[in-house]
Amino acid sequence: MPHADTSLVPDSIETKSEFWTHVHDQLEILMGGQRHWVSNLSNAASLIYSSLQAFPSNFGDGERSVNWCGFYLISSLFPQPRFTDDASMDPKSQTHASANILLGPFSGKPACQWIEVSPRPRGVCGDAFVKRSTILVPDVLTYPGHIACDGDTKSEIVCPLILRKGGEDIVLGVLDLDCLAIGGFDVDDQVGLERIVALIIRSCDW
């Protein structure tokens, strides 16, 4: 099967629970034999975004569509620059990077390049990262400190990526989805996305 066909949603799928199980299983196939997080998160963002577009009964490509899906990640996951202009190096850049989560693989319009998580988290992504729990926002205009990367966004859900290693929980970043409709996400979406995040965590080398 061509890789692009994994984003097709069969007509037999009617409920959100069925939909997220389908996406989970398709993503598991896509990530088979590949453990690099850049490749896997790139396919994950594309698959989730494209599959939601192909699920018109709940999302689709109209007024209820998801307009952004992607990841923000801790700076230590990113490779260090190999070729730089020494004159342009900012001595404060390392401190700045450690206080933020950085834009990773995504699907949708251009987004904020980083989001502050320390000393004070900003927006839904920053709060989900620090609190280490999923945050579901039915109306972003009512959320204190919401970051408006896209003014058309009306609702949002953010799931943290938590790696459990040696008895320690390491927060690697967040999965962020935005929707054009108020109340675009519900508990079924949260359950489905948290299961997908768990799959991503155990399928990648970090």
Feature tags:
alpha+beta, 5 helices, 6 strands
Task: Walk me through this protein's architecture.
Helix 1 (16-30) runs parallel beside helix 5 (187-203). Strand 5 (155-165) and strand 6 form a beta hairpin. This protein is globular. With 206 residues, the chain is an alpha+beta fold. 31% of the residues lie in helices and 23% in strands. A six-stranded antiparallel beta sheet has the order 3-2-1-6-5-4, with helices on both faces.
Describe the secondary structure blueprint for this structure.
Layout: H1 16-30, H2 37-53, E1 66-74, H3 93-98, E2 100-108, E3 114-116, H4 123-131, E4 135-137, E5 155-165, E6 168-179, H5 187-203
Antiparallel strand pairs: 1-2, 1-6, 2-3, 4-5, 5-6
Query: What proportion of the residues is helical, as a percent range?
Result: 25-40%
The pLDDT mean sits at: 93
**Alpha-beta classification:** alpha+beta
- End-to-end separation: 28 Å
Radius of gyration: 17 Å
Shape designation: globular
Question: What's the count of strands?
Answer: 6
- List the helices and strands in order: HHEHEEHEEEH
Q: Biggest sheet, strands in spatial order?
A: 3-2-1-6-5-4
Percent of residues in beta strands? 15-25%
* Weakly predicted, low-confidence segments: none
Number of helices: 5
Chain oligomer state: single chain
Q: What does the main sheet amount to?
A: 6 strands, antiparallel
In short:
This protein has five helices and six strands; from the N terminus they run H-H-E-H-E-E-H-E-E-E-H. With 206 residues, the chain is of the alpha+beta class.
